[in-house]
Amino acid sequence: MNEAASSVSGPARVALAVAYPLLAHWASHDGGGALAALALADLVVFVVLDGLLALRPAPWAIAAALLAALAALARTPYAQMLLLTPPVLFNAWLAWWFARSLRAPREGLITRIVAALHDCAPRDLDPALYRYTRGLTALWAWTMALLTAANAALALIAVPDGLLARLGYLPSPSITQEQWSWFANIINYGVLGAMFAGEYLVRRQRFPERPESGFFDFLRRMARLGPRFWKELFST
């Protein structure tokens, strides 16, 4: 990807990531297939964005095929059903990603991020901080696994587009589609945001010697790690 495309990728990803849960929640409240298809189209573009910006033929072909399929599903109930899957798959992938990083010879994801912020190798961190970041990586893995289970359970009992309802079974207990959406598209992200901010406060108390001067400086330093660091983190 050239420099111009790289400069667009980050802001575009943020915009797409913010738009998806809002579109998905709107679609669940509205109940229509067109909005559900639009939310899923946002997700498709988010996943293949780098390939699209690099003008690679395969991502463009994949995106065109998936968007055409979503357009065909926009007038059917299946678009709403498909909205049930991203929260389950996304949380499951994150749970696997965090847990996988704890297996030797890999280093925990949080350990690698904190080491990058301290501008050192993971094993050069203070031993107490090293142990803390590994434990925190495990906590994130367990949290994402629990969110996966919760989203899967709620997707089963949502009415009218939950899996059991679509198979002809009236679940008891049950929740409305909008209630499912509040959890899957709003509360999920609130939990992650609260964990992120809360952990920062805990770590600041336990390890007062830090490279940043405050929370916003911490966010700036995270951003300054750069696209290459985050791409390598996601791919290893």
Question: Could you describe the 3D structure shown?
Answer:
With 236 residues, the protein is mainly alpha-helical. It has 2 domains: 1-75, no CATH class; 83-235, no CATH class. It is 77% helix and 2% strand. The protein contains 11 helices and 2 strands, in the order αααααααβαβααα. It has a two-stranded parallel sheet with strand order 1-2. Helix 8 (163-166) links the parallel strand 1 and strand 2. Helix 5 (85-100) runs antiparallel to helix 7 (127-157). It starts with a helix and ends with a helix. 21% of the residues are buried.
Task: Give a short overview.
By secondary structure, this protein is mostly helical. Helix content is 77%, strand content 2%. The chain folds into 2 domains: 1-75, no CATH class; 83-235, no CATH class.
- For the termini, the CA-CA separation is 20 Å
**Number of separate domains:** 2
- Strand order, main sheet: write it out: 1-2
Most strands sheet: 2 strands, parallel
Order of helices and strands: HHHHHHHEHEHHH
Average of the residue pLDDT scores: 88
Number of strands: 2
Structural class: mainly alpha
Estimate the helix proportion, in percent: over 70%
Organism: Lysobacter enzymogenes
Transmembrane segments: 33-53, 58-75, 81-99, 139-160, 180-202
Keywords: Membrane, Transmembrane, Transmembrane helix
Protein name: Ketosynthase
